[in-house]
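#struct-help
A.M.: can someone run this one for me? Single chain, 165 residues.
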Amino acid sequence: MSRHLRIGFWNLNGFNSSILGNKLRTDDFLSIINKHDIFALVETHANYETEMNISKFQHFIKCRNQSGNRSSGGLAVYINQKLAKGVTYIPSENKNIIWCKLDKAHFNFQKDIYLGTVYLSPPNYERNNNEDLIGELEEEMFLFSQKGEIIVQGDYNARTGDIQE
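D.P.: on it. Structure tokens below:
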């Protein structure tokens, strides 16, 4: 019997909202995430002390350094607890990439699958390092493609400033 994995992705634009509160606790968000086996978030704006747990899911998080009094960026991958034994976090040196391996034996795949989540900064962002990021992503994709199949999901945030005439 073949099993299909439902994988989702969302640019959260910060876990906390002045209107909604913690977005991870809203009924709408939970309704969406609970329809997936694996779900990735970018722009969590969380730090390692932030409560990021979601019932019935295990997670891997990667936080960036705080900028002023608020956290910026950040990635999280949530795995349904029923599948968690078959998923391993794989470290990346880049703060904008998070990888996990889906074990072929656990999922009855022919090859391991390496799932990457990446966030590309806006082009006008003062600390934009997308050229370095893309180079590192290519290197990691090449490495993992030698070991199994790869899936990369990501977000390119194309916010721009005002257009001046």
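A.M.: thanks! The CA atoms of residues 87 and 102 lie 5 Å apart.
D.P.: also worth noting: The first strand starts at residue 7 and ends at 11.
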